[in-house]
Structure formats: structure tokens, C-alpha cells
Amino acid sequence: MATAKDIMHPGAQWVSRQDTLEHAARLMRELDIGALPISDENDRLCGIITDRDIVVKAIALGRDPARTTCSELCEGTPRWVEADAGVDDVLRELEVRQIKRLPVIEDKRLVGMISEADIGRHLSDHEIAEFVESVYAGQ
């Protein structure tokens, strides 16, 4: 059975809680991605910031992205999956939480991210259809 590590995008990068939104946005642009995990002072996952978060929760409200830190936008408990979790567990987490990206952790360290594109590359058409229906049903 395929695992999270088998379908993830390896080599994910993250930003520190103290990094600015401006820094996060520049890194997203450089890496051509829409989300970055946020680490605490112990290099542990403490949140995720998306390009949408930066626009809707900061810029649209007049906050200065050069002075606002990533930690100021962290909300709730970040979701993640262990590298050896089965694909069914990954899909269940994405569906139940209604999220589109999931950090992959191994030995308490970030090793990759799973996005909708990764799901699309590794699942059957039937599995993709079920996933899309579950995640987007209420939107």
C-alpha cells in the first residue's frame, strides 16, 4: 500500500514564526507554491500560512506585510500526517478537515507536503472523484 511519503512532494521548506509575511510571500513566489508550513523555535510544525491568508487576513485589512509576522496569522492546531501513514489515512485527514494541503512528518521533522496535485498524480480516477466530492461538497 502506498504511503504519504510515496505521494508527497519532498523537500518542503518552511518559514519561522518570526518571519514576516513579506518574506513568506517572496518564498512562495520563488518556489511557485501557495502554502508554507510554519516552524516554532524548536523546528516543530506550529502552523501553515497560505497565499490566501496573506491577502485576506493581512493585506485586505491594511496590515503591513513587512511588519506582520507569520505567527500573527496562525490559527488553530496544524494538521499533519506521519510519513508512513497509508494513502487512505491521508485522504481521510484531508476530507474530514476540509483542507487541501497536508505536511508530512518523519522523526518529528518536516519531510514533505501533500497537495491536491500530488493526489491527482497518484490516485485512480475513482479515488480522485471521491476526494473532490468530499472536500468540495459544502463549498
From TrEMBL:
The keyword Ubl conjugation does not apply. The keyword Hydrolase does not apply. It holds the Pfam family CBS. PROSITE patterns: CBS. Keywords: CBS domain. Residues 8-65, 73-130 form the CBS domain. PANTHER family: CBS DOMAIN-CONTAINING PROTEIN (PTHR43080:SF2), CBS DOMAIN-CONTAINING PROTEIN CBSX3, MITOCHONDRIAL (PTHR43080). This is CBS domain-containing protein. It comes from Nocardia jiangxiensis.
